[in-house]
């Protein structure tokens, strides 16, 4: 029989082993936690991204924050190591063209700024001792553009033009930062800047001001000539005693007066050409030129003295239109009429109006429907609910008579059903069964129109449908 002491020692050994066993490392648990930590892709305080934001490259860090790239760079650092080529502050403050810097900081050019900054980052860690020689292949930056690294004598070069002035300026486990003397500009960003600059240089036709009329003589006001002594009065006594007309200036030549002071057709052609050169509004230009007679009507209205504001949906918005919404006869015209405002409004005037009044209703050429504008997110929002659209590209064309404002959705009147509701169910089934051969030179709306014309035997009369 065992002694009580030996039994107590044995029991103590069992308790100690059971208590210590959970503290032993489990290989499956540790590997699972490591994989979970790696999948998060986060950055720690020793990351190269944190070092960039806290470094003396303050101008580059500010541009990264303005371009909303912090999350993108965090994901890139979490997936792989990076090499950042940081231009010195003087290259972004004094050496950069002020017009080009203004172009980068405009909100509508956010994509160009992001592409420019991502062009300075390579998804691999390349230290100064790993610098390739002159015959090394090109590297692909985060902007998907080629970036060539080589040596020119004792100098290390980036992109063939920028010299490295501070190699290995910041070294971290997940990346390295090299200081360079100038900014790297991709060719696509430079072409975008040149395109916008050429469009802004187009001379706009200023509106012709109304003549100034003398309220006493009912004639055009001219400099007064000295009257000789004893001359008769310029006006009869009745006109001198009668109440004069309103002191408001005479209106510009308006509808029905027969004064063709404006060449509306040329102005409409100019703004359509501007839409094509601006890019992203080919569907809208296609409607005006090929599908409807809106361009002719707009030219006639402008020639008679009317002013127009065009809310132009971009190609992405037009692509969301379904075939049912365009099948009903006259549907494209009705859609476009709702995007024409018989007023001359710029982005600034509309934004000031919605900021002051909260909600503004603008008349449209689709009588009697109005389009409602509100202030939202620092911009102008048209419509409400799911059918709303934001003013996306402001002042694409402004010549004093025609104003074109780009929006990111197609608008429909809130109290009118979309054209798709009026199409019979049988017509919807037939339209779904039709096989459409898409042409790269024509938009979706033109294809629908040509298909409808061919059904009536009028296909051969229009060359654009061939």
UniProtKB/TrEMBL annotation:
SUPFAM superfamilies named in the record: FAS1 domain
InterPro entries on file: FAS1_dom_sf, FAS1_domain, FLA15/16/17/18
Pfam families, per database record: Fasciclin
The organism's place on the tree of life at top rank: Eukaryota
Alphabetic keyword roster: Glycoprotein, Proteoglycan, Repeat, Secreted, Signal
Location relative to the cell: Secreted
Signal sequence range: 1-20
Compositional bias ranges of the Pro residues kind: 225-235
Region feature (Disordered): 204-260
Domain FAS1 residue range list: 44-184, 268-396
Main subcellular location of this protein, as a coarse class: secreted
A GO CC term assigned to this protein in UniProt: extracellular region
Protein family membership: Belongs to the fasciclin-like AGP family.
Function recorded in the entry: May be a cell surface adhesion protein.
Annotated protein name in UniProt: Fasciclin-like arabinogalactan protein 17
Source organism: Acorus calamus
């Amino acid at each position: 029989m065992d002694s009580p002491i030996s039994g107590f020692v044995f029991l103590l050994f069992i308790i100690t082993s059971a208590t210590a066993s959970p503290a032993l490392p489990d290989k499956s648990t540790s590997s699972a936690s490591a994989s979970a930590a790696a999948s998060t892709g986060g950055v720690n305080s020793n990351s190269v991204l944190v070092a960039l934001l806290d470094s003396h490259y303050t101008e580059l860090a500010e541009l990264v924050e303005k371009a909303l790239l912090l999350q993108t760079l965090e994901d890139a650092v979490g997936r792989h190591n990076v090499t950042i080529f940081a231009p010195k502050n003087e290259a972004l403050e004094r050496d950069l063209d002020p017009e080009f810097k203004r172009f980068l900081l405009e909100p509508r050019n956010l994509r160009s700024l992001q592409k420019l900054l991502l062009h300075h980052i390579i998804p691999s860690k390349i230290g100064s001792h790993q610098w390739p020689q002159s015959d090394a292949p090109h590297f692909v930056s985060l902007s998907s553009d080629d970036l060539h690294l080589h040596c020119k004598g004792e100098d290390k070069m980036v992109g063939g033009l920028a010299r490295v002035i501070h190699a290995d300026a910041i070294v971290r486990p997940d990346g390295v930062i090299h200081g360079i003397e100038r900014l790297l500009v991709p060719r696509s960003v430079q072409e975008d800047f040149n395109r916008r600059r050429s469009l802004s240089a187009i001379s706009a036709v200023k509106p012709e001001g109304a003549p100034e009329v003398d309220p006493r003589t009912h004639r055009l006001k001219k400099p007064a000539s000295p009257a000789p002594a004893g001359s008769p009065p310029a006006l009869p006594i009745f006109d001198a005693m009668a109440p004069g007309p309103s002191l408001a200036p005479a209106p510009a030549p308006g509808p029905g007066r027969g004064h063709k002071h404006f060449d509306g057709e040329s102005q409409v052609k100019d703004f359509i050409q501007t839409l094509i050169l601006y890019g992203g509004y080919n569907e809208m230009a296609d409607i005006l030129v090929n599908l409807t007679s809106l361009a002719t009507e707009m030219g006639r209205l402008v020639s008679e003295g009317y002013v127009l504001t065009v809310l132009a949906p971009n190609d992405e918005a037009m692509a969301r239109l379904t075939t049912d919404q365009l099948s009903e006869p006259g549907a494209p015209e009705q859609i476009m009429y709702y995007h024409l405002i018989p007023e001359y409004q710029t982005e600034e005037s509309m934004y000031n109006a919605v900021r002051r009044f909260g909600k503004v209703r603008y008349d449209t050429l689709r009588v009697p429907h109005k389009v409602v504008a509100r202030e939202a997110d620092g911009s102008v929002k048209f419509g409400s609910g799911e059918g709303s659209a934001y003013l996306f590209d402001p002042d694409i064309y402004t010549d004093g008579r025609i104003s074109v404002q780009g929006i990111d959705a197609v608008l429909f009147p809130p109290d009118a059903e979309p054209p798709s509701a009026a199409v019979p169910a049988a017509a919807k089934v037939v339209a779904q069964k039709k096989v459409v051969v898409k042409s790269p030179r024509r938009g979706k709306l033109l294809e629908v129109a040509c298909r409808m014309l061919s059904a009536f035997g009028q296909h051969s009369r229009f060359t654009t449908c061939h």
